[in-house]
Amino acid sequence: MSLQSLPLELRPAVILALGVAIFLFGSWRLLGALLEPFPQRSEPLVELIYQKRSLARGPRVVAIGGGTGLSTLLRGLKEVTSNITAVVTVADDGGSSGKLRQQLGLPPVGDLRNCIAALADAEPAMTRLLQYRFPREDADAGVSGHAFGNLLIAALSAIEGDFEEGVRQSNRVLAVRGRVLPVAPVALTLHAELTDGRTLEGQSVIARARGIRRVWITPSDVSASEDAIEAIASAELIVLGPGSLYTSLLPSLLVPRIRAALEGAPGLRVYVANVATQLGETEGYTLGEHLAALAAHGAGGLIDVVLANDNQGARVPVGYLAAPVVNDLPREGAASRVVLADLVDDENGHHHDSAKLATALLRLHDEGAVRQVPQVARSA
Question: How far apart, in whole angstroms, are the C-alpha atoms of residue 26 and residue 150?
Fold first, then answer.
């Protein structure tokens, strides 16, 4: 061990070589330990680090809404910035979310799950697991019809003893690029009055109704998520929609503190118009009628820019009964800024394309559009 058997001049070289070998072995093990949490990808590490640093410098964006429209938007946004906060409605009362709402008294988590899956930076297998829905073959089974992600959020909420904290933990567990927040810490109930005087209750029922005059939520004085209020106050870009007008977007905008926060927000407020009508709640609606409905609920003054689709030539799959939203707003002389762009999926003209939508929104942010209250919304 003292190297007495070696010539004197060789002893330092042996000790140096042994030290270098130990150092290299330790460095290799340390690098392996540091890279272990990262998903296995084909890109070099330097590209992954550059991508994360670039996304961290992206604009601070708040997206408000729910349903598949919001999920589509988030998939595009997460490729240009990691400073995303999704503020999601909690008024759903159907499907797995409705069951958990009845059985556990938990606010609906279906839209939250979809948004978390859209922003998750975890392994693809984990995302598929999150969206997995247990079969309905056995109606008596406790998990029949439930999405695994819904059960995960419900379990984390029970462990933490708080719904909002359970959602925060879901963000951490699934390595969400940004944040997904409920608009309120308790479940909301959506109500609607129809043009024939009837009133309906429940999001799932209202979504199929025609001739909606107005909607409202209970409890009307519900408290908003504090994290959502802070995010809106610091956002550079606030996106309203896309999504179901009466059942996804308006329930969030009707929360008093959310509306107040949006009124005083310094960031550019963009309403992303739907590219297609929905059977029932917006059947036959034009773009102007969408804006008129927002104005009728006091949300018209919350919009600085309307972003609408101008590609009417995209393919529409056979069997789609909805129709493209017609732009009936004047191109000239309106005080509101209506920005037209190609926003639809080339293979499905009734769906937004996430990359096109994110690019158009980023262009609006970069242009630094001047805030103007939409005249059409005020006069509608």
Answer: 42
Q: Which tokens in the block code for residue 374? A: 């939409």
**Closest by alpha carbon to 350, among 68, 89, 118?**
68
Say how far apart CA 170 and CA 109 lie, in whole Å. 11
DSSP character at residue 133: B
Distance CA 189, CA 200 (A): 11
11 neighbors 3 (Cβ within 8 angstroms): yes
Could you give the 3-state DSSP secondary structure of residue 306?
strand
Residue boundaries of the structural domains of the chain: 1-32, 48-89+183-379
Tell me the C-alpha to C-alpha distance, in Å, between residue 37 and each of 73, 77, 87, 256.
Answer: 27, 24, 28, 41
Element (H, E) at 155: helix 148-160
- Which tokens go with 270? 């963009």
Q: How many CA atoms lie within 13 A of 364 on its CB side?
A: 28
User: In 10 A of CB 98, how many CB atoms?
Assistant: 16
Residues 6+ apart with CB under 8 A from 15: 3
DSSP 192-240: EEETTS-EEESHHHHTT-SSEEEEEEESTTPPPPHHHHHHHHH-SEEEE
Q: Which amino acid is at 3?
A: L
Give the chain's largest Cα–Cα span: 105
- pTM of structure: 0.83
Neighbours of 180 (CB within 10 A): 29
Report domain 48-89+183-379's class.
alpha beta
The whole-number mean pLDDT for each consecutive block of 10 residues of the chain, a chain of 380 residues, reads: 83 91 94 69 62 84 94 94 96 88 90 92 76 74 83 94 94 91 96 96 94 96 96 97 95 97 96 94 94 95 94 80 86 66 91 95 80 38
